[in-house]
Design brief:
There is one protein chain. Helices cover 63% and strands 0% of the residues. It has 323 residues and is mostly helical. The longest helix is centred in the middle third of the chain and has 36 residues. The termini are far apart.
C-alpha cells in the first residue's frame, strides 16, 4: 500500500499552490516593487485630491474638459448654423436664445470650450517651458551669462503685459488661434522664470549639486537631472498659473477684436454680443454665459493650485497643524 510522503513540521507541502496574500507579494510569492516615480506621483495625487478646494477645481475642470471633448455630441446644433431667427429669447428649442446672426448660443458655448481649453493649456505649457529653461539656467549660471538673462527677464517684467500683447497681436492679426497662443506665451513667461530662478539659486548650494559638479558633470545635466526633479510641484503650480492667465488674456484679446473673429470661442462670443448691443436688447445670456464659463475655468485652475502648493509645503495641506 502506497503512502503519501510526509513533510517536516512547519514546512509547506512539496506540491500545490504557494501560499500568497502576504503584503508586497503577488500570486507567485514574488515581491512586488513599485517604481519610486509612480509612488511619488500617487502620493502627490492623494495630496491634491485631499484638498477640498483642489477637489472642487478638479471636478469643475474635468466637466469642462469633457464638454470640450464631446462637443459634437452635446451641442444641439452646429456652432455656425445661422438658419434660425435672429435675436430670439430663451426657448425649448434654444435654451439660451440665438445671436444677432441667427446662431444657437448654447451650441456656440459648448464648442467655444474647445478653443478656450486649447489656448489656456497650450499657451500655459509653452510659457511654463520657456520659464523653466530660462529660470533654471539663470539661477545656476553666474557671471556675464546670468547678467544678460537678468536684463532680458527684467525687460519683459517692466513692460506691461496686456499692452504688449495688444501691440504684438495687432501686427500679427488674422493669424488664427496659433498666433494668439504664441503671443500669450512669449509675453507671460517672465514671472515664472523669476520664481524658478530663486529656487534654483537655493538648490545650487546643496550637497548633491556640489557633488555632481565636482564629479565633472556638465552644467546642462546638473540643471535638468539634479535640480529639475526637485522643483516639480513649483513648476506644476507655475503651469496652472500661466494657464489661468492665458485663458483670461485670450478672452481679452478676442473681446478687443484682435483675434480671429471667425473662430467660435468664449471670447469671440462676448465680442459679437457687444457689437450687437446684447444688453440693450435684453439678451443677457450672450454676455453672461461665456463670461461665467471663463470665470469657472480660471477659478478651477486657481483652486487646483491650492492642492499643488501642499505638495511642496506640508504646512499648507488641509489638516496640518503647522508644527
Amino acid at each position: 500500500m502506497n503512502r503519501r510522503p510526509e513533510t517536516a513540521p512547519g514546512t509547506a507541502p512539496a506540491t500545490g499552490a504557494p501560499r500568497n496574500g502576504a503584503p508586497g507579494t503577488d500570486a507567485t510569492g514574488t515581491e512586488r516593487r513599485i517604481h519610486p516615480g509612480l509612488r511619488a506621483l500617487a502620493s502627490s495625487a492623494r495630496t491634491v485630491w485631499g484638498n477640498r478646494k483642489a477637489r472642487i477645481g478638479l471636478i469643475v475642470i474635468g466637466i469642462l474638459l469633457l464638454v470640450a471633448l464631446l462637443a459634437p455630441l452635446l451641442a444641439p446644433y452646429g456652432p455656425t448654423d445661422n438658419s434660425f431667427d435672429r435675436s430670439q429669447d430663451a426657448s425649448l428649442q434654444h435654451w439660451l436664445g440665438t445671436t444677432a446672426a441667427g446662431e444657437d448660443v448654447l451650441s456656440q458655448l459648448i464648442f467655444g470650450a474647445r478653443i478656450s481649453v486649447l489656448v489656456g493649456f497650450g499657451a500655459g505649457f509653452i510659457s511654463t517651458l520657456i520659464a523653466v529653461i530660462v529660470g533654471l539656467t539663470w539661477g545656476y549660471l553666474t557671471g556675464f551669462a546670468a547678467d544678460a538673462i537678468n536684463f532680458l527677464v527684467n525687460l519683459f517684467l517692466v513692460i506691461p503685459g496686456m499692452p504688449l500683447m495688444i501691440v504684438v497681436a495687432t501686427y500679427l492679426s488674422n493669424g488664427g488661434i496659433s498666433v494668439i497662443i504664441v503671443v500669450i506665451a512669449i509675453t507671460g513667461w517672465a514671472w515664472g522664470a523669476r520664481v524658478l530662478r530663486s529656487q534654483t539659486a537655493t538648490l545650487r548650494s546643496r550637497d548633491f549639486v556640489q557633488s555632481a559638479r565636482f564629479s565633472g558633470e556638465r552644467a546642462g545635466r546638473i540643471i535638468f537631472r539634479e535640480i529639475l526633479p526637485n522643483m516639480t510641484s513649483l513648476i506644476t503650480g507655475s503651469f496652472f498659473g500661466a494657464a489661468t492667465a492665458a485663458i483670461l488674456a485670450e478672452a481679452g484679446l478676442e473681446f478687443l477684436g484682435l483675434g480671429d473673429s471667425s473662430v467660435v470661442s468664449w471670447g469671440t462670443m462676448i465680442y459679437w454680443a457687444q457689437n450687437s448691443n446684447a444688453l440693450l436688447t435684453g439678451q443677457w445670456a450672450l454676455l453672461f454665459a461665456p463670461g461665467l464659463c471663463i470665470a469657472l475655468m480660471a477659478t478651477s485652475l486657481t483652486l487646483i493650485n491650492f492642492g499643488v502648493d501642499g505638495i511642496s509645503n506640508p504646512r499648507l495641506r488641509e489638516g496640518s497643524t503647522g508644527r
